[in-house]
Amino acid sequence: MSEARYQVGQVIIHRRFGYRGVIVRVDNSFNGSEEWYDLMASSRPPKNRPWYHVLVHQSGHKTYVTERNLTLDESKKEVCHPLIEHYFVGFRNGVYFRLVGGGSRAVT
After folding, report:
1. Which of 42, 75, 89, 91 is most buried, taking the most CB atoms under 10 A from its CB?
2. pTM (2 decimals)?
C-alpha cells in the first residue's frame, strides 16, 4: 500500500474519460470485488495503490477510480451532484469541506 496523493473534498478530473468529480472516500488499496475488477478495470490498474470514490459532476453517478487515472482540477469550480450535501457542508478555494465530530469543526 502507498499513501494517497489526493484527499476527500478535492475536485479531480479523470485522465482517460475527462469527467470532473469530487472525492468522497479514499481506499489505500483496491477494495472491490474480483468480479467488478475483471469487468470494469480493463487497463488492469494496480490494486495496491489508492482508489477513490468520486461523485461525478452533472450526473447522479458515483465511480470508483484508481489513482493513476486522476489529476487535480485547478479550475476551482464546484461540482454539481445530488449527493454533495450528503457529504459536504461547504466549498471554498476549489475544495469541499465537511463537518466531523458531531459538527464541531470543518475539515478538508
Report:
1. 91
2. 0.86
